Amino acid sequence: QKEVEQDPGPLSVPEGAIVSLNCTYSNSAFQYFMWYRQYSRKGPELLMYTYSSGNKEDGRFTAQVDKSSKYISLFIRDSQPSDSATYLCAMEVGGSYIPTFGRGTSLIVHP
Amino acid sequence: EAGVVQSPRYKIIEKKQPVAFWCNPISGHNTLYWYRQNLGQGPELLIRYENEEAVDDSQLPKDRFSAERLKGVDSTLKIQPAELGDSAVYLCASSLGTPNEQFFGPGTRLTVL
């Protein structure tokens, strides 16, 4: 079993839909949680960075962390075709400076 | 502000040939990472530098891979000799350290024939 599990998809939704992307993890020492967006043939781009449990909002994006369930989510409101990309979750043990990435979920938002 | 620069963007080589990748991090970022990303997978760390010191290279296959970061700025990752299984995207990232918000370059897509 991998430390970070993420469904590869693809997840296909209509424009304007609310998207929910999720990751589970097994290492209870993870303290930092990140979401990256990766367009085809580009490097990952950091979207959200959270430390504690709870919600963090940034525009149309909301990151949610539930440490008790070892489960993190990224919600995208009013999804746009430009949101079509692969979304990678990543987690880090405090002080390690080494993130462990999920395999990414491919999201397709169709007009 | 310029992002992380990598070159070349694409490289096709025959197996057993050497290959080198170059990375220029964001100015002022003391931490530099090299990752390998296989198709359909997330990035996996190869090596992490703090300034010019390699502080984590446990995942670097040292029999064929080497890296250096002279003067704590640019970095080079080398493979010699390349094998078919080395075909992947090699990503460079940099950060200020704390918090560990990493900025990635576009990657070098390596194909070994």
Briefly say what this structure is.
By secondary structure, chain A is mainly beta.
- Helix coverage percent of residues of chain B? under 10%
Number of helices of chain A: 0
Number of strands of chain A: 11
Instruction: Work out the oligomeric state of the chains in this entry.
Output: heterodimer
Beta-sheet strand percentage of chain B? over 45%
Biggest chain pair interface? A-B, 24 and 24 residues
Task: Give helix and strand order of chain A, one letter per element, not per position.
Answer: EEEEEEEEEEE
* Beta-strand fraction estimate of chain A: over 45%
What is the residue-mean pLDDT of chain A, rounded to a whole number? 94
Shape of chain A: globular
What is the global morphology of chain B? globular
Unreliable stretches of chain A (pLDDT < 50, length at least 5) are: none
Helix content of chain A: under 10%
Q: What structural class should be given to the helix and strand makeup of chain A? A: mainly beta
Determine the N-to-C terminus distance of chain A: 37 Å
H/I helix tally of chain B: 0
